[in-house]
Amino acid sequence: SSSSVVANKGLLNKPGDNNCFLNSAIQVLWHLDVFRKNFRQLNGHSCMGASCIFCALKDIFQQFQYSKDEALPPTLLRSALAETFQQQSRFQLGLMDDAAECFVSAITYVSTMVIHMVTLAKLQVTYAPLPHCIPHQKFGLSLVEQCVCQCGATSEPLTFIEMVHYVSASALREEDVAMRIRYGTSDQKFGRVVRVASSWGDMRSCPSDCGAQIEMRKVLMNCPDVVSIGIVWDSAEPQVKDIISLVHALGTTLKLTDLFHTVVDERALRADLYLVGMVCYYGKHYSTFFFHTKLRKWVYFDDAQVSEVGKRWSNVISKCIKGHHQPLLLLYSNPNSSSISTSSAP
C-alpha cells in the first residue's frame, strides 16, 4: 500500500558511529506518508555519484520496503551527507549533529538535485517553487513578514520560505499556562500558543520612529501539507518538571489560521493538521515517536530498537515523562494531502 507500511524496521548505530540524529531524520522521512509517496514518484535527478543523497535515500527506502532485516545500516546516506556537507563541517562521520537540521537538509538537497540547482558550497532555495519540488510544495512555509504600526507606518515586506518554525520551550510553557488561565483550556488552541510564544522577545521599533514597540506580523501565502515545529530548549538537561509541563502543553491539532496572523490560500483557511511525529532528545541521544497510519498506533524508534507505544497520544506523553525525553521537533500533517505534479520533473 502507498499509504503506509506495516513492517517497522530499526536503524543501526554502532558504538562510535553517532548515527542517532540521522536515524531519527530517516524514520521521519520514511513514516511521513506525504514525503514517502511523493519521493517514490521522483527518479530523474542530477546524480552526484558516490556522494548522492538522492540515491542513498532511495536505497534506504528500498531496504525499508523489501529487506527482511529488522535493523538496517544507514551507511550510504551517512557517507553521502558527510561528503556533501564537508565544506560546512556538518554531518561528518562519527560526529553527533542536529536531527532537525539533518531532516531539512536531506529533503532540501534531494529537491535541488531534481531541479538541477545544486552547488556543493551552498543550498540554493527558489522562491518560485516548481510543481515537483517536495519541500516547497509540501513542507515549506511561504511567509511574508512585515511591521504594521498603529500610526500607519509599515516596514518593507520580507518574503522567505521557512522549513522549520522554531519556538522557545520556556515561552511555549508560559504561554500555555496563560492560555489555560484565560480560556480554561489550551486544547485546540496550540497554533495560537505557538504564534504568541514565537513573538516573545521579537518586538520591533516603529519604522517611522513614533516610539511604539510592535510585533512583527507574519502572513502565510501557501498551504503546506506538513508543518514542522522546532522547540528550542534553554538547557540540554532541563528539570523534569519543565519537560512534564512542556509535553502537556503540546497540542495534537494545528490550525494554520491560529499559527499566523493572516493566511492567504483558501485551503489554508480550512486546513487542520494533525500531530504524526516527534523527535526527542535525552542524554545526548535522539529518538523518534511516529503515528503509524496503517497500524493506527504510535511507535517508538530508538536506533535498532522499535516498540509500539499505544493508540493514544496520552501513551506517548507517559513514555516521554518516564524517559525524560525532550521534544525537539514536532511534525504536523494534513491527512487529505494530494500528490505533487511530476509532469515537469526530469
UniProtKB/TrEMBL annotation:
Q: Tell me which InterPro entries the record gives.
A: Papain-like_cys_pep_sf, Peptidase_C19_UCH, Ubiquitin_hydrolase_53/54, USP
Query: What are the GO BP annotations of this UniProt entry?
Result: protein deubiquitination
Q: Which domain of life is it from?
A: Eukaryota
| Alphabetical keyword list | Hydrolase, Ubl conjugation pathway
Please name the PROSITE patterns in this protein's record: USP_3 (PS50235)
Indicate the segments forming the USP domain, all copies.
Answer: 9-335
Any single GO molecular-function term of the entry would be: cysteine-type deubiquitinase activity
Under the heading PANTHER family, the entry gives:
ECHINUS SPLICE FORM 3, UBIQUITIN SPECIFIC PROTEINASE
Q: What is this protein called?
A: USP domain-containing protein
Query: Which species is the source of this protein?
Result: Ciona savignyi
